[in-house]
Write a structure and sequence with these properties.
The structure is a homodimer of 252-residue chains. By secondary structure, chain A is of the alpha/beta class. Helices cover 36% and strands 28% of the residues of chain A. Chain A has helices at residues 14-17, 26-35, 50-61, 81-89, 97-106, 114-117, 151-161, 182-195, 223-239, and strands spanning 5-12, 38-46, 66-70, 93-95, 121-123, 127-129, 138-141, 144-147, 172-179, 200-208, 211-220, 243-246. In chain A, the strands form 3 sheets. Chain A has a 6-stranded mixed beta sheet with strand order 2-1-3-8-7-6, with helices on both faces. The interface between A and B is large, with 68 and 68 residues.
């Protein structure tokens, strides 16, 4: 039986919305979640504004099993994730002595000014998430995991928590590259999808310098079913005269 | 007076949520919108599922001046953007003769099968968006602009429509790089932000191989105000003994 465990990601950052920086966390989190049987089902990129963050946190934590956030947990005035998450949960924000102790591992006491101490303000009832890179912690409260935006720190935090997630059926995927216009095989593809509701078949066309075709990706929780669907797709495409390259199995 | 015109983007694609491909459209659209005075305020990445698309379209078109979507307008069974947008607007999906005519510019009549003709199914009342790359059109209905997901095609569609958008005040930005921990200047930065509500000051810390610091970005609609805020930030940081590099003016 398929047990789907879902997640959403909230990217908090005006710098992504302005186009100044490109998000580098979505893909890492998507792949890492899938390895532990959790499926990323929605991502929202929102501004550094309390209303926007509160609305996204409350909408998504009610809909998905897990919610992750990245960004906005530093010492500056535009870092408002902790207070926004506290507000979303209706709990007070408290200076957390455990978090202060962690800051002191990195910051000399004489440099631990009020701005830096803001990084120890944590919603009441939250547990800390380790930050082995620079010590200022993330936290999780309920099903919401609050992490840094800087990729190296986010990745370290994420690796520390993801094996504690309770995952479901892991989604396997396999692809076949078909060198023919996707419109030629679309009807056959739809028939296979219709016959096989247990897999999800996606078609991703490409045009690489005049060589065009489509990559068909089959995703499902049962390896034999995925393999069978891939074989059907390949056979169907060959029937249309297409050159077909089935993805090699991953190295062991 | 500042006239803010806002936009949201919906990225439709399981392939982005699975981590298989990295979105390449957000940044292009963000920068392009800003040039015509439209600010990207929210992005949602949703699955190729009708309910998810309908919900995102209806939430965002009620909140922002413009909504853009990318992905899901090809000929295969997983391309369901057109019918989902029609459902969101409560209008029928119709086979559009103008769209069929465009498909025939690219596709020989004998190859224009039922699957490919799906690309001519357009919500009633929508206008077509040109696709100079491969002719299969996008469309816009109300304040929603539906575009392809393949970056080269998306970009061509976007360039065709963006100058028809009614923009507001254009957001200017300037940055200063400060080689000191952001916690040291956070209080001074907050004071400048407090005194200058007409600009938005962001702090983006970095650690480049052991050299750390933060990039302060000031955004606002008035060039003189942005310059003045940058000068204040630079002076404040220098007062803390930091090395400061103000972004050079753009080449003329």
């Amino acid at each position: 039986m398929v047990n789907e465990v879902s997640a959403a990601l909230i990217v908090i950052g005006n710098e992504v919305l302005s186009g100044r920086t490109q998000d580098a966390n979505l893909q890492y989190i998507a792949l890492g979640l899938n390895e532990v049987g959790v499926r990323l089902k929605e991502v929202r990129v929102v501004t550094d504004e309390e209303d926007a963050i509160v609305a996204a946190v409350n909408a998504l934590r009610a809909t998905y099993n897990y919610v992750f956030t990245t960004g906005g947990i530093g010492p500056t005035h535009d870092d408002i994730t902790a207070e926004s998450v506290a507000k979303a949960f209706g709990v007070p924000l408290r200076r957390d002595p455990r978090a202060v102790e962690r800051l002191l591992r990195q910051i000399k006491p004489e440099n631990l000014n009020e701005a830096r101490l803001r990084m120890a303000n944590i919603p009441d009832g939250a547990d800390l998430i380790d930050n082995p890179v620079s010590h200022a912690p993330g936290f999780h409260i309920g099903n919401v995991y609050v992490m840094a935006g800087i990729p190296r720190i986010m990745q370290a935090m994420f690796e520390g928590v993801r094996h504690s997630l309770i995952g479901g059926s892991r989604l396997l995927s396999k692809s076949v590259t078909i060198y023919i216009g996707e419109g030629t095989i679309a009807t056959g593809l739809a028939e296979i999808q219709h016959r096989r509701p247990d897999v999800e078949i996606g078609s991703y066309p490409f045009n690489r310098g005049g060589i065009f075709g489509t990559v068909i990706v089959v995703r499902g929780t049962d390896a034999a079913t995925v393999e069978a669907a891939i074989a059907e797709v390949a056979e169907m495409a060959e029937g249309h005269g297409a050159t077909v390259e089935v993805e090699a199995p991953p190295p062991r």
